[in-house]
Amino acid sequence: MINVLVGSSVAAENLQEVLTVYGKLVATTIKEPGCVSYELLQLRDDPCELMLAERWLSQEHLDAHTRTAHFIEAMTKLETLETAAPAMIYTRAVSSTRLPGVVFIAGTERGGTASPTSTGYLLEASPTSECGPHSH
User: Fold this and answer.
1) Is 35:65 a contact under the CB 8 Å cutoff?
2) Among 91, 106, 19, which Cα is nearest to 55's?
3) Helix or strand or coil: residue 128?
4) How far apart are CA 112 and CA 105, in angstroms?
5) Taking the complete model, does pTM exceed 0.90, yes or no?
6) Are 34 and 61 in contact (CB under 8 A)?
7) What sections of the chain are H helices per DSSP?
8) How high is the pLDDT of residue 125?
9) pLDDT in tens, 97-116
10) For the CA atoms of 70, 35, 21, 76, what is the dihedral angle to 10 degrees?
11) Rounded CA gap, 116 and 51, in Å?
12) φ, ψ for residue 56, nearest 5 deg
């Protein structure tokens, strides 16, 4: 398993365009063979600080991704819109995996609604329309 993290900074006036480019890139890339996950994260306290987090089955899959037309097109557009750090490539050292997107808790003290499961409670987060920092 190959994990890739690429941080970048974006000027506020370019943020919406950058998010649009990444939105198309993510939607297309996630369908590629060997792509386990591909997502763009925004720093909680500064939405102009981004982190692209990728997970690939192998280096060969990652290499094939970097040769796709949609990747090359996105990188060409982003080159003038963001300042990206070098890609950091990781392999797994220690791991524990739960079902993606599922949070098990003992009750509802963190908000949302809880429903019993065989191993605890499944928390469904309450939607929010607020922007900015959120507390846990």
Assistant:
1) yes
2) 91
3) coil
4) 11
5) no
6) yes
7) 15-29, 59-65, 69-78
8) 36
9) 666 665 545 443 344 444 44
10) -50
11) 34
12) -125, 150
